[in-house]
Amino acid sequence: MTKRKLNSPAIDDAVYLGRAVERLSILIEEQSQSVFDAMGIIIPVRSCSLMTVLAALGEASAADLARELGHSHQLVIQKLPKLVRLGLVQDRSDDDDARRRVFIPTDEGLAQLKKFEQCTSLIRDAYTQLFAEVGDVRQLVDRTIDALNERPLEKRIDNKK
Fold first, then answer.
1. Which residues are paired to 103 by β-bridges?
2. pTM of the predicted model, to two decimals?
């Protein structure tokens, strides 16, 4: 836990768990970006899973990708334009429904994924070292998500007033 500044609100309280998890996510993204830069990976850090799933599917709509990733359609739609601009993904109209866009990894996108895949063992080893220090954060996050899905916060709060 970081030290609280004098006269600052108590935002390190458990009530702000989402903030703490977000800070961790941002820190991981920043540090991963440094690794990506050193290895010549231009895939945005937060789009690696999307690229991995798209490559496995070969082609997919945003709805298909959202379903596979367990993300909202809107989040996937927000990420795709940057992947297109970077030349990692191309899109076209669906042959069966012109309103629907289909996304396909480009040759550059697949080449970038190969670089990322080479990097994954290094990242996995770094996390193994980190988890030896602090415990397996990934398992803790997964268990927390499962517990909240099983019994949401609203059911954990005593509604007596």
1. 60, 91
2. 0.82
CA separation for the pair 52, 68 (Å, rounded)? 11
Q: Name all contacts of 60-67 with Cβ < 8 Å and 24+ positions apart.
A: 60/102, 60/103, 61/94, 61/100, 61/101, 61/102, 61/103, 62/101, 62/103, 65/103
Question: What domains lie within the chain, and their CATH numbers?
Answer: 14-156 (1.10.10.10)
Tokens of 28: 């991981």
Q: What is the pLDDT of residues 47-68, one digit of tens each?
A: 999 999 999 999 999 999 999 9
Q: State how far the Cα of 109 lies from the Cα of 64, in Å rounded to an integer.
A: 19
Q: Dihedral (C-alpha) 109, 115, 118, 121: value to the nearest 10 degrees?
A: -80
Three-class SS of residue 104? strand
